[in-house]
């Protein structure tokens, strides 16, 4: 770092450090700075502090700059992602303009086969059903989308070769390919008919398939290529209809199915709220908020007063105080990675007290350190007042 930069930084830090003495309301005029330097500790001591602060600033500013850049990128990608996920219909916390209103939701549903299908509840279609009379789906008029049921229970087409003479027909039709995922939207799949030891003796007309919210599928059935072919309903997949929203139906052998909990990547919950139950005066480097009221995710350490970000994401913090003592200027600073980012300033000129609350929102990387410093003045609290507080939440988790 060259000398000019150093001086500029030194002045900046100097102003910041002196804000307590001169008041924070923009009065950074040179007269007052002079007054401050005369009134307070020797210059040498102050400069030592300034240079010490600079050292951390030097690297913190690089970090902050990187964070800023990352945040812009995150916002861009998260917006895209959100748009994607909105279409896919998964549950993602969405804020502000991304939320669709009812009209838009209606419009979206209007063309969505997940909301417009015909129920096909025919027990003879079951993979375990053997009937005397055989059906040929070629004789049916197929129109639009269908959802398969077995006696009122939602199920899906088999993804495996079904023995002949099942599903109420000679050659049962099964899906030659995996069911799509939500994000795949509508896909086209080949359909096979089993006959004479050949699982795909009949390569029937391909059909379209879509996965819907609530673990079910809709199929756009068409006339099969020959007789006697019929679409099957796999009774082994009845269990899939009972999977909850945060589960997916899985199977290794396509015979035995079970509900499996989805990997929860972006659902970490972090919330904390703590108070300092006593009075504070003068400089307290790190307030040790010992009375912890909420600590979901255990990211706040009551022993040290430090919050440590457990994941990357956007966090929101708040901190409050109540100042007493006439004439006292009280400054509390929120410190992020040892960088002072937000102040809660009060200056009580008469015989009165004032409460003060400040908030701050930022992107943090995993491992970031956040605490509150009592820079100067007096703060009042007792064990029941909850006046000197510090809290925060993870709003959105990010990669
Ligand atoms: C700045 O200094 C002048 C004297 O030079 C003083 O009159 C004035 O009040 C100061 N400004 C503020 C905002 O304190
Ligand atoms: C974010 O998107 C805007 C336009 O939507 C673009 O101008 C900007 O360059 C993007 N920023 C990054 C970091 O990708
Ligand atoms: C077919 O499976 C269903 C569901 O498991 C069962 O209720 C039914 O009894 C079975 N039918 C035959 C003929 O095995």
Can you describe this structure?
A five-stranded mixed sheet has the order 7-6-5-4-8, with no helix packed on it. Strands 13-11-22-16-19 form a five-stranded antiparallel sheet. A five-stranded antiparallel sheet has the order 14-15-20-17-18. With 399 residues, the chain is an alpha+beta fold. The radius of gyration is 33 Å and the shape is rod-shaped. The two termini are 33 Å apart. The protein folds into three domains: 1-80, no CATH class; 114-261, no CATH class; 266-399, Jelly Rolls, CATH 2.60.120. α1 (3-22) crosses α3. It has helices at residues 3-22, 30-39, 43-88, 102-110; strands at 118-121, 146-150, 153-154, 171-176, 186-195, 198-212, 216-220, 229-231, 247-250, 258-261, 271-276, 280-281, 291-296, 300-301, 306-308, 313-323, 329-336, 339-347, 354-364, 369-376, 378-379, 388-397. The structure holds 2-acetamido-2-deoxy-beta-D-glucopyranose (3 copies). Residues 72-73, 76 line the site of one 2-acetamido-2-deoxy-beta-D-glucopyranose (NAG). It is found in: Secreted. Keywords: Disulfide bond, Secreted, Signal. InterPro entries: C1q_dom (IPR001073), Cerebellin_Synaptic_Org (IPR050822), D8C_UMOD/GP2/OIT3-like (IPR057774), Tumour_necrosis_fac-like_dom (IPR008983). Residues 265-399 form the C1q domain. This is C1q domain-containing protein.
């Amino acid at each position: 770092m060259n000398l000019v930069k150093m001086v500029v930084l030194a002045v900046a830090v100097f102003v910041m450090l002196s804000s307590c003495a001169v008041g924070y309301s923009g009065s950074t005029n040179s007269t007052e700075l002079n007054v401050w330097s005369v009134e307070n500790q020797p210059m040498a001591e102050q400069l030592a502090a300034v240079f010490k602060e600079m050292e951390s600033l030097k690297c913190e500013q690089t970090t902050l700059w990187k964070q800023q850049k990352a945040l812009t990128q995150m916002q861009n990608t998260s917006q895209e992602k959100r748009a994607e996920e909105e279409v896919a219909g998964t549950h993602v916390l969405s804020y502000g303009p991304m939320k669709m209103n009812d009209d838009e939701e209606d419009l979206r549903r209007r063309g969505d086969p997940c909301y417009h299908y015909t129920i096909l509840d025919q027990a003879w279609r079951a993979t375990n059903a053997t009937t005397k009379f055989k059906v040929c789906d070629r004789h049916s008029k197929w129109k639009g989308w269908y959802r398969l049921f077995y006696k009122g229970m939602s199920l899906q087409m088999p993804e495996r070769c079904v023995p002949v003479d099942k599903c109420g027909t000679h050659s049962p039709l099964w899906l030659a390919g995996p069911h799509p995922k939500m994000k795949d939207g509508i896909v086209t799949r080949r359909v096979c008919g089993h006959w004479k030891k050949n699982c795909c003796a009949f390569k029937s007309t391909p059909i379209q398939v879509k996965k819907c919210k609530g673990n079910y599928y809709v199929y756009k059935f068409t006339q099969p290529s020959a007789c006697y072919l019929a679409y099957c309903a796999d009774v082994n997949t009845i269990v899939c209809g009972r999977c909850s929203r945060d589960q997916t139906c899985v199977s290794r052998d396509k015979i035995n199915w079970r509900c499996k909990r989805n990997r929860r990547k972006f659902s970490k919950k972090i919330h904390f709220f703590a108070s300092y139950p006593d009075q504070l005066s003068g400089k307290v480097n790190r307030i040790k908020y010992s009375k912890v009221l909420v600590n979901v995710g255990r990211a706040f350490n009551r022993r040290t007063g430090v919050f440590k970000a457990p994941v990357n994401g956007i966090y929101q913090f708040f901190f409050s105080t109540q100042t007493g003592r006439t004439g006292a200027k009280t400054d509390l600073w929120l410190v992020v990675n040892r960088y002072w980012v937000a102040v809660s300033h009060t200056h009580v000129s008469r015989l009165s007290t004032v409460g003060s609350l400040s908030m701050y929102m930022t992107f943090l990387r995993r491992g970031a350190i956040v605490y509150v410093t009592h820079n100067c003045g007096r703060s009042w609290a007792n064990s029941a007042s909850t006046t000197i507080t510090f809290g925060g939440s993870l709003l959105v988790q990010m990669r």
